[in-house]
């Protein structure tokens, strides 16, 4: 059994780095607050006897030796970055839970056959730089390191510049740390476990993701003197797209969602009809055929709206992540650990994307979910209980022990 | 006849203050660029022999003596501030046209009975600080000077601070310069004169304006893991309001318009359902009963949308300007000046608000319109011809001579 109080203590200690007034965390990837938590994490890993390295995209790897160093390490961990108005658990539980597993094994003097590697992946959230799960995507070869280094945030700062600005461009090439498999603990970020009174979600699959950048070009004109029929209003165009996206996701539901999270009017003014809007779209489904249908329906709706309103709309698919099907043996290992420990569990699909989904494309991967309050995440009010966090960390530890061999 | 080349020269000389790459002007009220054009204007007025004073809200008044100084001056002028992406003529033609009238009278050695006062009103546009036509509204007593001085822009800077930052908080109280009447020259900002091939618009009325500040409070949550039916999406709510506003304006059309020009998502992120949006609304009609109907329909639609989506929407009417009916004698004077000069003309309603609409509430006022290309305004592509600008300025001069007495 892990030390529940110690785990809870580290979660709340690190929540000071970027703490918001409403009890959440604002710790955008590669920000000053991210540097603070990274420094804390490196020190904690070193104190736990791990050999810590950082790769060229800033991901941190802490290695615990195994009896058989010819075996590839069992990877565990998650991420320490948050949304602009994020919570204290998303990513953090999985990373500090991994650290807690190491601390517990150390205290109990338990050696494993295979080494264990604790990882903090850079920019999982994807809100400062696209795509989400950026560093793990480069790790598995979906993108080159140079491509990722040149990605820009809204202010035009590149990933490379941001890494340098906090001193976290590591000296190891991406992929230097081989892993044999990866297990990630996370809050569910949805309402199912809580509603069903289950403690552990045995994650067997994950939704695929489509991310688009969009730009609407209408025509700025005077709000008072431009008759309604002559308008080419970028915001009215966006509004139709938002509602079309909502209707399309519902039509393909329940196994589909669609969201417009960002929309910025260029040079807004009260008495000017909006002329130009930049926006983003996020569509998901656990079913690849539904993802294709979402893309097709969305493009069709946008073409119709754009033609009817004589307003140009450009959309650009910037990221496509297919649905994830986790490794059956690892899924079984998670399930059996939950059973052995006496926790109630159910199989579950992840609505969110995770680094484990990327790793699953080149190695066996799996995930452990615990409930979060009202299914709320990507919100400062995100919450989870200490017993559930401890339960998930115990399941993580027992899964690792089963895979790594004692 | 005024000097068309000199007028054209001053319009294009001052267009350098805030010139944009697309040929427009960005000269927000009380900005550094506004200071530049104010300095230029004060110097030009002084060189034309005017006695220049600035009031406590930064409006500039240049007085040309009359034979009978017991008569109240005839006011002429407009504004030199622009929209964030504005044109070279909106407000500028009326202010520099007024200056051109003075220069022409000087050159011709013409004295008038009543004095003439050229005015540059502060913050006509209303995009940095609400309401529009701010200084003339204070002049006529719609707001106190202190109220206006405390209005804030999006950055939280007050009008008072902005005035001080460019050294234009004048030493004269608002209202120090009495005026007997006011005549304003302006581009039409709509498509009617051009479409009908008329040179002069004799403005007999102006639309009333309703300005609202709105705030939508939904609930931020994860774009991937929040099922569609559980969402309280602030952007989808806004989208319904935008389309409802459009439908309501069309229903009450053609004599009604409605626009949402500003909408800002708080802490936007691609994979977060928008939780909070601040927005503005602008509704207009030349008919007071239709204005009331717009307000009623809009509030009804918003209440229904808000209840159905379980998303709170607050709206706050920050400005209500009733429709304007200009002074019949002054309207006739403008019409007769156009006729005498041989320009084609028609009566017209102003779609936009103007300082003359405020002044009309306490003194006789009227306006002269000239065509602008494709009716485009509040756009960097705003355009007008030199002959039309000269024609409008001639009509302004002859109207002034008729009122002031030669
Ligand atoms: N787990 C999580 O919130 N990841 C962020 C990436 C995404 O799914 O949008
Ligand atoms: N003339 C003009 O564009 N005024 C700005 C105020 C408004 O009508 O919105």
TrEMBL record, chains A, B:
Zn(2+) 1 binds at residues 79, 90, 186. The keyword Zinc applies. Zn(2+) 2 binds at residues 90, 125, 378. One of its GO terms (molecular function) is metal ion binding. InterPro entries: Amidase_Cbmase, Bact_exopeptidase_dim_dom, Peptidase_M20, Peptidase_M20_dimer. Keywords: Hydrolase, Metal-binding, Zinc. Its cofactor is Zn(2+). Pfam families: M20_dimer, Peptidase_M20. Binds 2 Zn(2+) ions per subunit. SUPFAM superfamilies: Bacterial exopeptidase dimerisation domain (SSF55031), Zn-dependent exopeptidases (SSF53187). Residues 208-306 form the Peptidase M20 dimerisation domain. Belongs to the peptidase M20 family. This is Allantoate amidohydrolase. It comes from Bradyrhizobium nanningense.
């Amino acid at each position: 059994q892990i030390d529940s109080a110690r785990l809870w203590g580290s979660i709340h200690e690190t929540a000071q780095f970027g703490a918001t007034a409403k009890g959440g965390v604002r710790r955008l990837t590669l920000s000053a607050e991210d540097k603070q938590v990274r420094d804390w994490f490196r020190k904690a890993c070193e104190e736990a006897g791990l050999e810590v390295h950082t790769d060229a995209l800033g991901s941190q790897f802490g290695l615990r030796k195994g009896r058989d160093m010819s075996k590839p390490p069992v990877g565990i961990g998650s991420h320490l970055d948050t949304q602009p108005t994020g919570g204290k658990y998303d990513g953090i539980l999985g990373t500090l839970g991994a650290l807690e597993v190491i601390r517990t094994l150390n205290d109990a003097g338990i050696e494993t056959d295979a080494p264990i590697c604790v990882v903090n992946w850079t920019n999982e959230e994807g809100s400062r730089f696209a795509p989400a799960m950026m560093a793990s995507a480069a790790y598995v070869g979906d993108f080159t390191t140079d491509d990722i280094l040149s990605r820009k945030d809204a202010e035009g700062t590149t990933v490379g510049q941001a890494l340098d600005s906090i001193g976290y461009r590591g000296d190891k090439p991406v992929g230097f740390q081989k892993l044999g498999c990866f297990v990630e603990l996370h809050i569910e970020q949805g309402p199912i476990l809580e509603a069903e009174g289950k403690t552990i979600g045995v994650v067997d699959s994950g939704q695929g993701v489509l991310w688009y950048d969009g730009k609407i070009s209408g025509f700025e004109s005077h709000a008072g003197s431009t008759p309604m029929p002559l308008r080419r209003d970028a915001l009215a165009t966006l509004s139709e797209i938002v509602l079309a996206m909502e209707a399309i996701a519902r039509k393909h539901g329940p196994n589909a969602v669609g969201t417009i999270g960002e929309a910025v009017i260029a040079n807004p003014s009260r008495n000017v009809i909006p002329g130009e809007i930049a926006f983003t779209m996020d569509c998901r489904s656990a079913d690849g055929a539904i993802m294709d249908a979402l893309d097709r329906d969305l493009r069709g709706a946008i073409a119709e709206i754009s033609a009817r309103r004589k307003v140009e709309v450009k959309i650009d698919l910037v990221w496509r992540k297919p649905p994830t099907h986790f490794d059956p043996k690892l899924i079984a290992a998670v399930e059996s650990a939950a059973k052995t420990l006496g926790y109630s569990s159910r199989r579950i699909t992840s609505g969110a994307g995770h680094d484990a989904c990327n790793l699953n494309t080149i190695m066996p991967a799996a995930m452990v979910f615990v409930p979060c309050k009202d299914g709320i995440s990507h919100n400062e009010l995100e919450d989870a209980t200490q017993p559930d966090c401890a339960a998930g960390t115990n399941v993580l530890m027992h899964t690792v022990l089963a895979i790594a061999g004692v």
